[in-house]
Amino acid sequence: MTGATELTDDGLLRRVMAGDEDAFSLLYKRRHPSIYRFALHMSGNASVAEDVTQEVFMTLIRNPQRFDPVRGTLAGFLFGVARNHLRKRWEQDRRLVSLVGDADELGPLASNNGNGNGNGAGIHGMHVNGNGNGDGNGNGHYVVPTTRDEFTSIENVSRVRKAVSTLPENYREVVVLCELEEMSYEETAAALGCPVGTVRSRLHRARAILLEKLRETRPVRRATAVGE
Amino acid sequence: MSENDERMRMDCSQFEEAQDDLDRPGTPGLALREAALAHAEGCSRCAQLMTDTEALDFSLQTLAVRDADLQAPPRVEAALLQELRLQKAAASGRKGQWRMAALGAAALALLALGLSVRHAPVIDGKMIAGGKTNAGNGAADHSVSAADSGAGASSVEVVQNVPSDSQDATAFVSLPYAADPATLEGGTVVRVELSRSALASMGMPVADASATDRIPADIMLSEDGAPQAIRLVSSANLDQ
User: Fold this and answer.
1) Do A6-101 and A113-228 have matching folds?
2) Which of A27, A217, B197, B239 is the most buried (most CB within 10 A)?
3) A206 — contact with chain B (CB < 8 Å)?
4) In CATH, what number does A113-228 get?
5) Looking at beta carbons, which residues of chain A come within 8 Å of B53?
6) d(Cα A40, Cα A99) in Å, to the nearest integer?
7) A104-137 pLDDT tens trace
8) CA–CA separation, A160 vs A179, rounded Å?
9) Which of B62, B71, B85 sits opposite A153 (nearest CB)?
């Protein structure tokens, strides 16, 4: 399959429609991780995320004509399908909305956090590093974490993960797409089928809620860490 | 205060509105970063908000990095590839069905063409139906007769006691669009009288196709009534 890796999603999809398994594998490997993560963050359940991922790509195999390149990107289409499947599941089983406090359901995410319980530096301790290296593009804030930073990060990631998972659904999906999957407002709006302004306002509100939740769960030693 | 400084002034509400996008590429917030920093320098509340916001950004980015390797288990891809193969097989099956349908339609079209060719010369002729090919030939059990009308309408005659195959006749010759002769078990032989030109149009070797006399012939029909083969019968037999 010469040059297939350089093909666009649309080009790969055309090959998939012709029954090209290699093209499908390539497209799947390219797009499924973000779909899986989205489903995992939205459901908090690895089994659901797996099912949703499978359903999304089953849809692509069975009804590829549902994707209209004129209306948006394939990635946006896949997120939209994933979202619809998640909503169907939520309607079928409202229990999935309740995510927090169930260690089993958060298994894959929790294991990604490691076991660090933090040393009390708090998120503002991390911020000192990030702010000091800020170059304004949002990606250059990091310094290579020291062991202490790593622990801090693990603890805070866990807190942030929990805070994200308890956001209302509409806010959670924009946080997952815009912040965790680093999609633009436009891409997110296409995936969610809403105006860009709605995405922006939801994200603004979601971040405010996150900040509030993180303040509520702030480690005891956080005040000392920022010198307050 | 210079004009530039004036332009860079930002109040707290503007700061709050812009602060989420200060590090986000492709948004107007990025262009407001300098103004936001300038505002935060003189506003402790917004400075704290900026600190918290940047900490949140950092934490979210760290979360994204930590989860970057999360993937669905390989069994999902295996199941999807299996489904793709099934879809492919089903699609080729559908394609085969369409092909069969197209062939069937073509066969029907040929049949219609054949019948029209066959009927054209019989318009004012006489046609006699015979027995089943695998039954005792010549055992036809009914008769329908319609005489030629004055207007030259078609004439069909089915008579009892149609002569058997023992009479003097040539072997059956398959028509161009005929099915496999092996499938003709249970077909019907129909005796007709055709003009020489009609026989010629069916591929029979006929001398002087322009002659107006009629030649008796047996046409073998399949169970669905499609003509499959033809043979010539001597005039003597027809007269029986």
Assistant:
1) no
2) A27
3) no
4) 1.10.10.10
5) 207, 211
6) 11
7) 444 455 445 433 333 333 323 333 233 333 333 3
8) 12
9) B62
Q: Tell me if chain B has a CB within 8 Å of the CB of A25.
A: yes
The DSSP code sequence of chain A is: -TTGGGS-HHHHHHHHHTT-HHHHHHHHHHHHHHHHHHHHHHH--HHHHHHHHHHHHHHHHH-GGG--GGG--HHHHHHHHHHHHHHHHHHH-GGGG--TT-TTTTHHHHHHTTT----S-HHHHHHHHHHHT--SSSSS------HHHHHHHHHHHHHHHHHHHTS-HHHHHHIIIIIIS---HHHHHHHHTS-HHHHHHHHHHHHHHHHHHHHHT--TTHHHHTT-
Q: What is the CA radius of gyration of chain B?
A: 44
Give how far B32 is from chain A: nearest CA, Å: 11
Q: Any idea where the domains of chain A sit in the sequence?
A: 6-101, 113-228
Q: Can you give the pLDDT at residue B81? A: 93
pTM as predicted:
0.57
Contact B170, B234 (CB under 8 A): no
Cβ–Cβ of B52/A215 closer than 8 Å?
A: yes
Contact B84 A58 (CB under 8 A): no
Q: Which of A42-56, A89-103, A168-182, B62-76 has the lowest mean pLDDT?
A: A89-103
- Is this prediction's ipTM beyond 0.90? no
Residues 179..198 of A with a Cβ closer than 8 Å to B: which? 179-182, 184-185
pLDDT of amino acid A153: 65
pLDDT in tens, B165-201: 445 677 888 877 776 666 666 678 888 888 888 877 7
Inter-chain CB proximity A141 and B57 less than 8 Å: yes
B59/A37 CB distance under 8 A: no
Fold of domain A6-101: Rna Polymerase Sigma Factor; Chain: A (1.10.1740)
